[in-house]
Sequence to fold (472 residues):
Amino acid sequence: MIVEKKHLDNFTILYVEGLIKLGESAEFFSSALENVLKNESTNVIVDFTKIDYIDSTGIGELVGYLGKFSNQNRKLILVNPSERIQKLLKLAKLDTVFKIYGTEDEAVAAEAPSSSRA
Amino acid sequence: MRLANVYRGSGVESFHTGSIAVVDSAGRLLACAGDPALLTCIRSAAKPFQAIPLLEYGGAQEFDMTPEEIALTCASHGGEPFHVATAGAMLRKGEFDESDLLCGAHVPYDEKAAADLRASGESPSPLHNNCSGKHAGMLLATEVMDVSSSRYIDPEHPLQLLMRSTVAEFSGVAAEEIPVAIDGCGVPAFFLTLYRAALAYARLMASAEGESTPGSLERYLESASFVIDSMTTFPQYVAGAWSMTTPLMQSLDGELLAKEGAEGFYAMALSPALSRALTERLHVTDDAAVAVALKMHDGTMERARNPVILRTLEALGVDVAGHPALEPYRTQRVRNVAGTVVGEVRAEFELEML
Fold:
């Protein structure tokens, strides 16, 4: 799995690519989120556009970090997650907690503080 | 423990008690209500495990079996025309016919199928029996096992002994320690504690997910996957219009395996992905699958069991309210003789999260 990182306004954007599954890729995904959690104070956008597959380990990491970011009053925002991820979040009643957008631009436009949109 | 109250007006007139065990595939008891160690007969909830020997002996390949046929092998179906036709087709693949079925005949559970049959002037056949798919699968299993198909239902028949040992493996109990009785369709019925029944379902789901899933049984990866994929992809073959099981699995869209047993028993297994998505409620921190076994103590079926099943899922954090197809099952209306609604049965309990 590949993770690229970009900073834009009050956001850290993580572009993830490939597979997230039990083992090295899930650990890599987790460490990328952990790094942003510990070393930055921004909200986070995870762009799933180029993710081919995410297994239950990856979903567990995602849900786990949702709580960790929320505890710091920070947002974990998803861009273009797969239908299955969206379905699972809905079944777990997390779809109202996770902010989900179709594109990075939509996410930034909707979630940026009003001062930076002006 | 009281799980469902029967209201007449605003007053509770009576109530149903029951017990529930929520267990993950690693064997951890995650939540419960009442007595999770209650020993009970799992009845038709054994069917997904009873389908395993047919698959392990190569029956799917030998008879070119479709997922719909595998789903019917695990079914308590309503005797709708497509159920009956599929059971008949399965029999023909092994050069059997309905006279070989030893399950007996009963009127279809599905109201329309029953009415149509009455209108046609025909009597129910063994193909209408809710267990005909299981029995057809058993007959096919005798072929690939190369054992006699006569009296295939007897507890000492090699197929039935194998089915008992399969249930034993998944539930983690020695086969000889599983009490056996005779089910409504004549085959052995197995007694397990709710904990063991839930564990068996969790391990079935875990096995379908792959060898890295805690509690998976490596030798059954392929057959467990075939069973679960077939049941969750074709839930209309697992039950039909007569039962909540079909809309329940349809609503959860492949993330939940569900199977009824008679006398108020029910089992469900959540996919590891859904289990992880519910991690804040269930505290599952690895990729274990989670399963539920529940028993209404008085054997009630639709009246209280359906609301209790949905309440259990809700208590685990599953979005039940978001599915219109499940709405009719959340409460059971109580009507007077004139048909006026005068009360309802509501599931009202909390799971003890451990």
Residues 149 and 288 of chain B are 38 Å apart (CA to CA). The first helix of chain B runs from residue 47 to 50. The mean pLDDT of chain B is 96. Chain B touches chain A at residues 209, 212, 252-253, 255, 271-280, 284-287, 317-319, 322 (CB under 8 Å).
